[in-house]
Amino acid sequence: xxxxxxxxxxxxxxxHGHFGRAAEACNISQPTLSMQLKKLEELLGGQLFERTNKSxxxxxxxxxxxxxxxxxxxxxxxxxxxxRKTEPLCGTLRLGxxxxxxxxxxxxxxxxxxxxxxxxxxxxxxxxxxxxxxGLRNQSIDAAFLALPLGEPGIVEVPLFEEPFWVACAPDHxxxxxxxxxxxxxxxxxxxxxxxxxxxxxxxxxxxxxxAEAGGALGDFRLASLETVRxxxxxxxxITLLPAMATPQALGVETGIVARPYGGAERRxxxxxxxxxxxxxxxxxxxxxxxxxxLPSCVMPINDRIYQS
Length: 309
Hints:
Oligomer: single chain
Number of strands: 12
Largest sheet: 8 strands, mixed
CATH topology of the largest domain: D-Maltodextrin-Binding Protein, domain 2
Mean pLDDT: 86
Low-confidence stretches: none
Helix content: 40-55%
Shape: globular
Strand content: 15-25%
Structural class: alpha/beta
């Protein structure tokens, strides 16, 4: 008998085009995944993937089965949701958030969430946008807080709020005394950026471009953590761009840096993303409403409730 697990592995390999990456996304070893798919091929009497040393390609038989496999997995998830559903937002909800958002959003979101829905058990995953989208597709997470727009087929986007950017520098830096920082203030500055994969990097690169036009430079660092960027800024290595919730003003703590409003139009839109076929959509609408009602003053609400896909 074909199992849901085998179908999940089939979909994962088809989406990743690689057994190793599919196994990592499913949180199992590659030999285990390969063995399960081999059993499935033996049961079905045909080859699902054409394998080489460097990649794999789905066969016509595998392609014919893939759509049905996705529908079966979505149906199984709906059955599980119905079975565990007794009241709104209860039980386990698997949520993701990007690293430049999670440390600053969760501290103000979790208390009202726990008060409003005490029977909810959120399971949080912090990862880059691409990995969270993988999690949505392979159903390892239910929804994720991401920077929009995404433009991903089959993924619904719910805009929640806009977050302005601030320029951060060391306390003794010349920009620390400014009321606000504009592109013309960036002459000769070294801008520190996050490494590739972070959605915030695009805005940082834009600031770098403005600095470069005025004789500045991009710092030669490949930084994976916004906290590392903050520490380097504090010791005078350069300046950077921070989302509003990550500034000392919003955190209410001493961080060793000074942040000033950025006079450009740059800001990011944060929203909730989930599969178009996800059966718990009413719960996610409640979650989105709760976020909108509890936003910190440093961000701007978006009350557009039209869902985009």
